[in-house]
Design goal:
Elements (H helix, E strand, L loop, with lengths): L12 H56 L12 E7 L3 E11 L6 E12 L4 E10 L3
Antiparallel strand pairs: 1-2, 2-3, 3-4
């Protein structure tokens, strides 16, 4: 059997010359991966914001617009607000209708406030929308 001789220095200049490019390229690859994850998070957040805004607009279109501008509309607090109506895989919306008198024109005014909710990457996103008008 041959005797295996160990070197006193495990890191020779040849191995050091090989490890330096490996460490540099690993650092470049690691920073690229972090940048990709950050961009993905930003895109997902913008998509969630848009979904929340669309949910708020859908709340006005689906829940408020059909009843808000009728001539014979009578406000009723029990039926004029809904909470958390689910839209297929988009999120939720809630609406509230109101009626009052415009202080500048002294005319009756009606409106709706809607809040849309969407699931973001880490946090739920919330956006609001409102509409006001004078009944005919």
């Amino acid at each position: 059997m041959k005797d295996i001789k160990f070197r006193k220095n495990l890191i020779t200049p040849e191995t050091a010359a090989w490890f330096i490019p490996v460490f540099i390229s690993s650092g470049i690859l690691f920073s690229f991966i972090l940048t990709v994850y950050e961009k993905d998070f930003q895109v997902e957040y913008k998509i969630a914001q848009t979904r929340a805004l669309y949910n708020a607009e859908s709340g006005i279109a689906l829940g408020a617009y059909s009843t808000l501008y009728k001539k014979d509309y009578i406000p009723d607090p029990s039926t004029d607000s809904t909470s958390f109506v689910y839209i297929d895989d988009m999120g939720y919306y809630s609406i509230g209708l109101f009626e009052g008198i415009d202080p500048e024109t002294v005319q009756p005014i009606r409106g709706a406030n809607s809040t849309g909710y969407a699931k973001g990457s880490l946090l739920p996103i919330k956006k609001s929308s409102s509409i006001m008008g004078f009944p005919l």
